[in-house]
Write a structure and sequence with these properties.
By secondary structure, the chain is α+β, with helices and mostly antiparallel strands. The protein contains three helices and ten strands.
Length: 241
């Protein structure tokens, strides 16, 4: 019965695809010549932990006020080393390093990955120094060249590479009112209201206790909002053997 159900589901998905394919037609050479495109992809992603996305610089990445806060036990990170504290502190059976009142967020916006050649770098001056006498960075222990095509400057210029860059990078700061514009390649925010070692007590584990207060806190943010903005200039070329 299960096999029949799987087959029926597969056919249900396949028939619409076949209908679409049946309506497609091949392109002529002249039509294909008008198609243009570029190599590469653009990567963007968001990560929010105990925080919310508002798309507003002044509030984006702020804590989930309903669940977090200095007196709330929900928003915390905890660490425990195996066996740490067991059998110590009287009835306590274990100890935890607890990051209290914690929330964080990270956004990467329009990171471009493109196919390129090393010779396309805006400042390829280093290429001229790559093969000076005694330089072994592109050779194995026996002195054999690891680059396909030979260890020459001309070959290095034509070496394929992965180019990583932010196409829309930039930013400015107004010292008069302390505001910024741009700096949106990467946006990072992190807040830890308190850090302390908490001990298990009876049936209550240390990560659910708040008896030791705090000896340290941490905050990564900007004066314009809960997150710091970062701009990355230049290109990064990665290639291999």
């Amino acid at each position: 019965m299960n096999r029949l159900m799987c087959l029926a589901s597969l056919l249900a998905l396949l028939f619409p695809m076949l209908a679409i394919a049946n309506g497609m037609r091949s392109l002529s050479d002249s039509e294909l010549s008008e198609v243009s495109g570029r190599e590469g992809v653009v990567i963007s992603f968001d990560y929010y932990l105990n925080s919310e996305k508002t798309n507003d610089m002044a509030t984006d990445g702020r804590m989930l006020s309903t669940y977090c806060g200095a007196s709330n036990l929900n928003c915390r990170f905890t660490w425990q080393i195996a066996g740490r504290g067991e059998g110590e502190q009287g009835s306590y059976s274990g100890e935890w390093l607890v990051y209290k009142d914690g929330y964080a967020s990270l956004s990467v916006n329009e990171l471009s990955l493109d196919a390129a050649f090393l010779g396309e770098a805006s400042t390829p001056v280093w290429v001229n120094d790559a093969f000076v006498a005694g330089n072994t960075r592109f050779q194995d222990l026996e002195g054999n060249c690891l680059l396909e095509g030979g260890c020459t400057v001309a070959n290095m210029v034509l070496t394929p590479a992965l180019r990583t860059h932010y196409a829309n990078t930039g930013g400015s700061y107004n010292p008069l009112d302390g505001t910024i514009t741009g700096y949106s390649d990467v946006q990072l925010g992190m807040h830890i209201g308190g850090l302390a070692v908490e001990y298990d007590a009876g049936a209550v584990p240390g990560y659910n206790r708040d008896e030791q207060g705090s000896f340290m806190g941490m905050s990564i943010r900007d004066n314009n909002g809960p997150r710091a903005g970062i701009a990355f200039g230049g290109d990064f070329y990665m290639y291999g053997f």
